[in-house]
Amino acid sequence: MKNLSDVLTEEEKATLKLRTLYQGYGYSQFNMSKFEEYDLYVRNKDFLASDNVITFTDTNGKLMALKPDVTLSIIKNSKDTDDSLQKLYYIENIYRVSKETHTYKEILQTGLECIGKIDCYHMSEVIMLACKSLQSISNSYLLDISHMGIITVLIEELNLSSHEKKLILKYIGERNLDGIKKACDAHSGNKAICKVLITVLSSYGPMDTVIPVLTELCINGTMKLYIKELEEIFEILKENHLKNIQLDFSIVNGMNYYSGIVFQGFISGIPSAFLSGGRYDKLMQKMGKGSGAIGFAVYLDLIQHLSPPPKAYDVDALLLYDENSDPKQLTKAVQEWNGTGQSIQVQPTVPKGLKYKKLLQIKDGRLEIVDSDD
Question: Label partner for 246 (CA 20 to 30 A): which of 22, 207, 311, 328?
C-alpha cells in the first residue's frame, strides 16, 4: 500500500504536521471568508505587508477585498474576555503581491493566535510552538527573538523627533550601528543611551549569553521588567529542551502594533523569514479590543525553495495499449493492479521523461511484464 506521504505535496505534508501540532496544544481551527470589507485594510494598512489589495464591488455596493492578511479578520471576530483565552489556528489562502514575481499570488498560510489575558506561560507556549513549527519542516532552523519594549525604552530616552525615530528604527532593522551613532551625534542626543542601544544590538546570540549583558545595561525599572520577562520565558523554553533560539534586537516589527516579544523563524535553504510573529496588544487596542494577543504566521509557499528528495518513480507501472486493445481488459488490469496498492498509468506510448518501475502490456488477454527495474 502507498504511504500517505507518497501522495501529498510538500505544502500538504507541512499543513498536516502543523495542524496536528496546534491541535495537540488545544488550539481550534478558525475558518473565515476569503474576503473582508476593504475598509478593514484601509484602517490598518501599516500592519499589512503590502499596500496592494485586490478589491471588488459586492452586489450590495460595498467595496470588498480578497484577504491579504488573516490576523485582522481574527481580531475583528474575537471577543474580549477577562478570565480565559481564545486559542485559534488557521490554514487559509491569502492574496498578496509576490516578492519574487511582483504579481498577485494566492499564498497558503497557516499560523495561530492566542487572545485574552496573556501571561508569561502563554507567551512561552506560543514561542515554543513557533519553534516546533520550524522543527516540523527542518532540523536546520533558527528562531530569532526580540523585545519591542526594550528597544522602545532606549529610543524614548534619546528624545528624538518623529522623523529621527523612524530613521533610527530603519538603522536598527538593518543592524547599521554606524548609522545609529551618526544619527545620535547629529541630534546631540544622550551619548550614554546611544552606546547602550548599540551594545544591545551588538549582543546577538543565545538567550543565556545575552540576558546577563542586558541586565548590566539596564537603565530603568521598565527595562528591568522587560528583561525579567525574557528571563522567565527563557526558563520555560529550557524546560521544553528547545534549541536554535537567539536574541536579536534588530527585529523591529511595527511599533504602532507590536508591544512586546517579537520573533522571526528561518530555515536553511529558504531565502527569507519562514515564520513571523509577536505580541500585538496595540493592534488589539486600535481595533477596539481590550484583550492582549500574541501569535505568528507560517509562510508555507516558501517551502518551494526546499528541494524535495528526488522521486525514484513517477508511477509504479506503465500499461501500454494499442488500437486493438479491449477497453474492458484494460479496466480489469487497472483494477487488479490498484488492488495491490500500487499506482498505474495507461498510455498508448511511453511518455517522455516518465519514470516507471514496471512496463506492462496485455497480450493474448493476459497482463504481462515487458520490463522491470526489480
Answer: 22
